[in-house]
Amino acid sequence: MENKGISHEEVLQSLKKFKKLDMTHKSGRILGSMCTCPHPVGVEAYKMFLESNLGDPGLFKGTQMMEDEVIAMLGELLGKRDVLGHIITGGTEANIMAMRAARNLAQQKKHIEKPEVIVPTSAHFSFKKAADMLCLKLREAELDGNYRMKMGSVEELITENTVAVVGVAGTTELGKIDPIEELSELCLEKDIYLHVDAAFGGFSIPFLKEAGYDFPEFDFRLDGVSSITIDPHKMGLAPIPTGGILFREKKYLEAMSVETPYLTEDRQSTIVGTRTGASTAATWALMKYMGRKGYTHVARRCMEVTGILAQGIRESDFKLVTEPQLNVVAFKSDKMSSEDISAKLKDKGWAVSISSHPRAVRIIVMPHVKEEHVKSFLKDLKELK
Ligand code: 0PR
């Protein structure tokens, strides 16, 4: 750092140089991301609350009121208005919080030497971080032919050390929805905590159901579901970082709360201490502004563009690895590896990603990916040699 600062103008000039190196969602070229262009209404709300800290909520009573309202709105969307929870940094933090609550609650009932958590092999890698931090053993349940958690495999993995089962509603790699109804019944019968990771699907499945799409139940309408991750910074159009964690009852938050001397609240359950209120403001503003109708329109449009992309793949030399259930399309080729396809597409300016189970090129049709982008992408894809 220099002794004397540079001028405002010079700072801006330099920032623009960095910015030029970044890709933008708006270009339609980012095809492997679960984030998207943040909606301007959310950005405006975010900017208004930059100094608000939900880590000390007594100082920011308005923001706290908004968080309470957002949690109730999210709960209502997911089948139970009187849930408890927080707006946090994203799906990773939400999943860590859920695993921490599950472990602590189980430990309150009886001492478990090495607590275990059952996740599908398709679970997001945030569960590996959670397991490492919380000293949990991850046990991976197999998937069926449709890449959904196999119930028989879950049942086989349950032991007296199982503290939680995780199901995913909108898997990271293929956008699949695990059989949450069956998981809920099983977990109720065995008295095991069930967490649903709907980081991706939470802001689209309920709206698509309203629009007539056929999806199974996956939320608090199922009595066995204890907690749900839902990320406003994915299909909710909120700026990064904005995640959500919801719990069915207060006891889950209490199981991991610590005393917070000298703050305006007595106890805190979140992992992050100083916590931005801007994410809460953005989510509040967007849910009010978009309404069910607005989000239904966005989710339905993504599915329509997904349909166009999937049809284009079917008509090409490439093969879909599975029929899309949400707005994720994965495909491969008999002639080229997925790495080669990705590298060649990169040369043409497209940023796709590669899934690992199975190895395939993976595209997430987020709201910034429009029909014209998909058509131009398919043209480039068909010309690959
Ligand atoms: N749960 C699920 C089902 C997810 O898909 C993700 C992230 C998480 C939890 C973790 O959420 P955070 O990343 O908010 O902590 N899924 C994407 C992924 O890992 C995130 C992503 C977003 C990746 C944008 C790339 C990108 O450009 O693929």
Characterise the protein shown here.
The chain is an alpha/beta fold and 385 residues long. The chain folds into 2 domains: 13-38 and 293-382, Aspartate Aminotransferase, domain 1 (Alpha-Beta Complex); 41-287, Aspartate Aminotransferase, domain 2. 41% of the residues lie in helices and 15% in strands. The protein is built from 12 helices and 13 strands. The protein has helices at residues 8-21, 40-48, 61-77, 91-109, 126-134, 151-157, 180-190, 205-210, 250-254, 278-314, 338-347, 371-382; strands at residues 84-88, 116-120, 137-141, 162-168, 193-197, 225-229, 243-247, 258-259, 267-268, 319-320, 328-332, 353-356, 359-364. The strands form 3 sheets. The chain has a 7-stranded mixed beta sheet with strand order 1-7-6-5-4-2-3, with helices on both faces. A 4-stranded antiparallel beta sheet has the order 10-11-13-12. Strand 2, helix 5 and strand 3 (137-141) form a beta-alpha-beta unit. Helix 2 (40-48) runs antiparallel to helix 10 (278-314) and helix 4 (91-109) runs parallel beside helix 5. The chain is globular and about 60 Å long. It starts with 7 loop residues before the first helix and ends with a helix. The model has no long low-confidence stretch (mean pLDDT 97). Bound molecules: ligand 0PR. Ligand 0PR binds at residues 33-35, 90-92, 95, 124, 126, 168, 172, 197, 199-200, 231, 243. Residues 33-35, 90-92, 95, 124, 126, 168, 172, 197, 199-200, 231, 243 line the site of ligand 0PR.
